[in-house]
Amino acid sequence: MLIGCMSRTVFGVACMFVYVMLYVGTNMLTKLLAPSLPLVQIALFRYGFAVPVILFVLVAAGKSAFRIGSAHVHVVRGLLAAAGSVFGYAAIAALPLGDATALFFTAPLLVAAGAVFVLGERSGVLRGVCIAVGFAGVFMIAQPHFAGLGGIAAGLGNALCAALGVLMVRRFRNTEGALPLAFTTSIVCVAVLAVPAYLTWSTVPPTVLVALIALGAMGGAATILLNVAYQNASAPMLAGIDFLAVPLSVAAGAAIWDQPIALQAESGCILVVAAGLLNVGQDHMIRYAAPAIRVARQLRRMLPGGGNGGPNDTLIGQR
């Protein structure tokens, strides 16, 4: 298996990187579709067309992949996704793409904080600094003036729903499979969004239908990857990678919608990318530094005097 060829952490990180790309792509499609269709209808198509994609992967994985330990976990996860999608699409429609994405990325901070209190995961000082620097970069990119309070509230509501959903995936990773969670999330979303979408239904042209199908396929793949990522790597680490979507969204907004990129935004992009990469890399630095320190201690003991009493020996021991 693929996971057998690499560590669970590396596999989770790889899934998160691909998820970020798909996340930015779905937001771009949503921004393009928002003027022509009601937001609830877009959300319905997004999850409706995601179901076949997820079901295909689920069937290919075999019966053993489909395990449901607690049905209420899947229902709550689906409700959070449905509410979050509507909030998120409202923010994307009302705000510049970079601003809406920046607001969403208060979610990794909520995840990192919640992982400490809800999941009991440790978050060191360096990781906390990484998240704080990334958070500062997010709001540097967002610019000091937002388009309206409604869009800001919608963006924060999306972030809250996303953070709660991620913590649920991590909390129940030993009893709930990633694929079943992705499948049931889409099913619950379709059921919840069907009625309001019907009441506000708008005719869908063929060209728009193609875009909606692509939105659903990308969204389905992103849902699977997000669940798999958080079941294989720590929440604080993945939170740092999430920030990479912000500079990508700013670049997309500038390229497609002619949204200007100020020096402040460019500086924020640098902070976000640096924080994300440092957050990911610190675990590997610590992992590879520990054996080197042990070897240094052993070599020191082999020297005349056995390494007793020397100031360098004291320094190595402190490390």
The largest sheet is: none
Provide the β-strand percentage band. Answer: under 5%
Count of DSSP strands = 0
Distance between the first and last residues' Cα = 37 Å
What's the alpha carbon Rg, rounded to whole Å? Answer: 22 Å
Based on secondary structure, the structural category is: mainly alpha
* Overall morphology: globular
The number of helical elements comes to 14
Helicity range: over 70%
Mean pLDDT: 81
| Strand and helix order | HHHHHHHHHHHHHH
Low-confidence stretches: 308-319
Question: Would you give an account of this structure?
Answer:
By secondary structure, the protein is mainly alpha-helical. Helices cover 78% and strands 0% of the residues. The chain has 14 helices and no strands.
Question: In summary, what is this structure?
Answer:
With 319 residues, the protein is mainly alpha-helical. Helix content is 78%, strand content 0%. The longest helix is centred in the last third of the chain and has 40 residues, at 263-302.
Q: Topology, pairings included?
A:
Blueprint: H1 8-33, H2 39-48, H3 50-61, H4 71-94, H5 97-104, H6 107-117, H7 125-141, H8 149-171, H9 178-199, H10 206-232, H11 235-242, H12 245-257, H13 263-302, H14 311-318
Give short descriptive properties of this protein.
14 helices, mainly alpha, 319 residues
